[in-house]
Amino acid sequence: MASNPIVNMFKIKELRDRMFFTFIVLAVFRLGSVLTIPGIDASVLLSYFDNLAKQNKNAFASYMDFFVGGAFSNFSIFMLGVMPYISMQIIMQLALIIFPSLKRAAQEDGGQQKVAGWTRIGTVFVCLIQSLAVTVYAESIPGSIVLENSVLFRLLAMLTVTTGSMVTVWLGDQITAHGIGNGISMLLFAGIVARLPHAVVELSNKVKDGEINVVFVIVVLVMFLGIIALVVYEEQGERKIPVHYAKRVVGRKMYGGQNTYIPFKINPSNVIPVIFASSFLTFPLQIISSFGNNQNSARWVGRLSAFLTPTGWWYNILMVILIIFFAYFYTQVTLNPTEIAKNVRENGGSIPGIRTDKTEEYLQKVLNRLILPGSLFLAAIAVLPTVIQNFFGFPQSISMLMGGTSLIIMVGVDLDTMSQVEALLKMHHHDGLVKKGKIRSRNL
Questions:
Q1: DSSP element (H, E) containing 303
Q2: Is 371 in contact with 239 (CB distance < 8 Å)?
Q3: Are 179 and 22 in contact (CB under 8 A)?
Q4: Model pLDDT, residue 437
Q5: Sheet order of strands, 349-350 included
Q6: Which of helix, strand or coil describes residue 4?
């Protein structure tokens, strides 16, 4: 009789300790999401955002809360979450491509540690700028500030929010090192899941009040389940490039002679393009919305803020363009066809039917055929909340959680975490969580 994999998860001490550690860190993260920064009247904020929600004018706050589990509307110490760190990672990756000297430094011994250090230093500056923007936003809310000295409040808020964001990044690193899953992604996952109960209650109230047709709810739920199935299928699908290694004799031993393959996922960049695109738009959105919310702001700032609202079509068009761009960008950085072809040739390998000097060109052609449909698939799901909101009349707080970025992140992080748990179970000679079927490789 086969053993229960769920029970085995708690029998293995290493896996049990990692799971417990992850839960503790996530609990700390959720606790920090409700601790309001000094100098803020939490009751005034609650009333203010409730009024915005009733008027359907809380698009910016809902968008920010989406990544941090409500921490933004609470003006908590973790209100920026890990988004500044992700933004700085994008800037650093672009800098490595633009500046060859920086790329050479990163390829030296200990270069990755240097890049990580530079990224964290840069994150501090990004946090300071974004924290200044949110303090300006807070000052525009009547009665929200309890400190009379505005300079003191800004300095205190910037220091608190910046420290909170760096602590959040540190918590993510601790999950990666001692817990289960990728820490940064797990914190994003926790923030999204934390909003689900509120969204369910809000949706049920809308249905009871007759504001949303129950038929539309059923249609959207069916769409939701269908898209989950498509995302899971896409995440597990891969294109296998066969590689044959010739036999060679080194000393008295013979090497090579075996056939293997290079696995290219249907979506090589996974959920990264969506996270990068969302983070890339968050920074200007914060700045513009903060100044656009100010009564003394210029008229063009207010217009630009309305133009880039997360519920608008222009914002979603920019999101689609950025997702496609980052899909190509991230794939070229992580799966460099030149490096792969070089390693294959140096080890005496070749792709059947492809000339050795055409290996790089062939790999690039295959990647291009995978990246474009994969990125378009991600982009289509990313704009789904806007479609649900505009055509079915769902509030933004609900539509964002029933599709788009949230869905991709939740499914992607869940699959990645399950794969790590399976690896630990099999390492200790236990059955995995699921029985994986074989996915055929197709010539794309």
A1: helix 299-307
A2: no
A3: yes
A4: 44
A5: 259-265, 238-245, 349-350
A6: coil
Q: In terms of Cα–Cα distance, which of 188, 195, 223, 207 is closest to 381?
A: 223
| Percent of the chain whose pLDDT exceeds 90 | 7
Can you tell me the distance from the alpha carbon of 378 to that of 327, in angstroms, rounded to the nearest whole number?
9
The type of residue at 368 is N
d(CA 133, CA 158): 9
The pLDDT of residue 21 is: 92
Residue 440, pLDDT above cutoff 50: no
CA–CA distance, 60 with 62 (Å, rounded to integer): 5
What residue has token string 């990666």?
176
CB neighbour list of residue 183: distance below 8 Å, 6 or more residues apart: 25, 171, 172, 173, 174, 175, 176, 177
Q: By C-alpha distance, which of 353, 354, 362, 347 is closest to 257?
A: 347
C-alpha distance from residue 177 to each of 85, 164, 173, 303, 319 (Å): 18, 20, 6, 45, 32
Residue 314 phi/psi, 5° resolution?
Answer: -65, -40
Alpha-carbon Rg for the chain, nearest whole angstrom, is 24
pLDDT in tens, 331-349: 877 777 878 888 888 777 7
Q: How many CB atoms lie within 10 A of CB 232?
A: 14
DSSP track, 174-187? HHHHHSSS-HHHHH
pLDDT of residue 25: 92
DSSP 3-state percent helix, strand, coil across the chain (nearest 5): 70, 5, 25
The predicted-structure confidence for 111-170, as pLDDT tens digits, reads as follows 788 888 888 999 999 889 888 888 887 877 777 777 777 888 889 989 999 999 999 999
User: What is the number of alpha carbons within 13 Å of residue 89 lying toward its C-beta?
Assistant: 19
Instruction: Judge whether residue 382 has pLDDT over 70.
Output: yes
